[in-house]
């Protein structure tokens, strides 16, 4: 068992996730070949590695969750607020009469949620996101340690 800082554990998690994604892609590409043709990679071995990486990620994500559980609600909340900003920013807010089509026939658009509403809500959400981020940063200012099995770190080499 090895103790890592929370920031190092997050870096390890991201690297493991990246390796898992690459293995997934390789297995997907090479899983099926023409009969009689030698496969360029050992798919069965890569599938075992995939499984080991997946299990290691579960353990590491759980350890990271444990270290973050004091602030976890804010982490989830900030993600949802960012999703809300993305949703609102992509919302069609046409409102009023505009020419439409090649003949220029006027069409009257009616938006329930209008641009000024979106702008106001986005501004409020951004303030809430900043406040949550400040709380998360304050929580993270206190060093946290994460227990990681040595075998998890071995998967990085």
Q: How does this model look, in words?
A:
With 157 residues, this protein is mostly helical. It has one domain. The chain contains 5 helices and 4 strands. The strands form 2 sheets. Strands 1-4 form a two-stranded antiparallel sheet. Strands 2-3 form a two-stranded antiparallel sheet. Strand 2 and strand 3 form a beta hairpin. The longest helix has 27 residues. The chain is flat, with a radius of gyration of 24 Å. 8% of the residues are buried.
Short description:
The two termini are 17 Å apart. The chain contains five helices and four strands; from the N terminus they run βαααββαβα.
**What gap, in angstroms, lies between the N and C termini?**
17 Å
| Oligomer type | single chain
- Provide the low-confidence segments as ranges: none
Question: What number of domains?
Answer: 1
Mean pLDDT: 92
What percentage of amino acids are in beta strands? 5-15%
Order of H and E elements: EHHHEEHEH
Spatial shape:
flat
Q: Could you give a short account of the major beta sheet?
A: 2 strands, antiparallel
Rg (C-alpha, Å): 24 Å
Count of distinct strands:
4
- The helix content is 55-70%
Instruction: Give the strand order of the largest sheet, numbering strands 1, 2, ... along the chain.
Output: 1-4
Helices, by number, come to 5
Q: Supply the helix-strand structural class.
A: mainly alpha
